[in-house]
Fold each of these.
Amino acid sequence: MSRRVEVEEYTPEQRRTVNARLDEAEKGPFYGPFTAKEAATFLKGTLKATRRAKPLWGRLSACEAEAIALAVAKKARIVATDDRNAINTCKLARIPFTSALAVLVRMYGQRAIGKQEALVKLATLEREGRYRKTMIAEVRARLEEG
């Protein structure tokens, strides 16, 4: 089962790169999908059972649990998530994480995208995401100042 990227926002070169990496990942020993139960079991075995960790098990979505379990299994450098429970799980597991807002600021800072494009993407994240207004305002200020 091959997952192919056909999103129009990507250039043909970006599509080739993403598709090549997906093909490579499919050959690896930990290529998903984990079932939700397998991912939760894997995470429970990986994380130390603390009182703070236990309430997260029921609230972590199957997709987020699978992403974190795969990251732990593959010893990934970072997990990209905006889900609060997934972020808390990453903190407990000491797994570095990032969010779409952080990626946007970094892309702008490295001049991968221009100011206008960054503001348009921020407006999309504001409309479609579940971010606090203070977070959006902070990112907007960083984009407008730099």
Amino acid sequence: MEKENKLNLSDLDKLYKADKELADLYIGVNSKGEDIIFKVAQAGNPLHEKMQRKKAKEIEKYRRFPERLKSVYQEIVGTSLLKDLGNLRDDEGEIVPSTLKNRIKVLHEYPSIMTSVIDIATDINNYLDLPEEETAGGEDLDDSMEDIIEAGKEDTRKNLKK
């Protein structure tokens, strides 16, 4: 008879239980030189699941109408995943309040941001505090990510000067 191994849930908790409620989504640099970093909640959070259930009939109803369907998804993401617009500023240089209306407007006007929010929200690694030795290939991913962010900031600053 085969011996049954006990499932050690604490090992799974260490690997897959979220440590953080929100993850950062770096957008760029605003007109005042400040980083624009949106805050994104993890997909599957209670509000996200509630919104998906609430909008299920609308999703089915508008399946053949892509533009209307897209607006339903923007409402779900703007309500339950995209939580803060960081240092986003308007044309007058004022901080854009992170209201539901403004979050949905950003998602509507910039589809690539909608995609990025969903990508961040669905990747468990964005919500874990992993020790450095557990990064891919043993390299420090935080340092390489910082290099990528700095390069993006520099590109944004150059574009703002044009």
Amino acid sequence: MVELDVTEAQIIKSEAVEVDKDDPQWAQFFDEEEMESYVQAELCQCIETVEPIAIHPYWLRNRELGAMEELKKELGKFSQTLNGYLLGFTRPQQVQVPGKQNRYPQPFLFYTFKVTRYIYKPAVGQKLRGCLSQLGKNAGTCVVFGKFTATVFPATPDELTTWAIGDVIPFVLDSFDNLRKTVILRGTSTPPPPEAPPTKKKKSKRKNIEIESSTLVVPKEEQPTPKKKRKKVTSE
């Protein structure tokens, strides 16, 4: 068995810890462009705050990822201070607040961060889209924003027969129940408008004449067939 010095063992341990800190599996678990599309559609709000966040000493070398680990626990839950549900957040940035102490006693360390959160506030009449996960006799269950469940009723009875698991169902929010850990949504589907029959384009006579002239096959002039010469029959 090879014995290592204390310093070498500490170096190997610190390198292993740095790999875990710099490349966590959950560090990029949501798409920022997707969140911005929700903001443009007025489905959620982008709110920036500067606040102290308690992180575990394990994340002392990479405090921003430590703050992300704590913010991850708030996903999909109701925030009383922001009056909404957390859909996602950007990577927090540590800031130095003058005149305040950023570090407190163990076991957790408090540091001040600038955080951008995407908050969803449900409202009756919102136009949402959900992925169908279950089908019932009268309605279907959809997953909205990848976090919440919604009971969607079809606009017509025949529409339910056309649904399949995995389909994206657009619907209008009719009612909801605010809970501390999640929100329960209920709505009615909005089927797409029927496709208009294709209109036939009228062709002008000039185009028809051009097409006919281009496709017209002109027969070659018939040449007269040469007459065969008769052989003279000589009498003996």
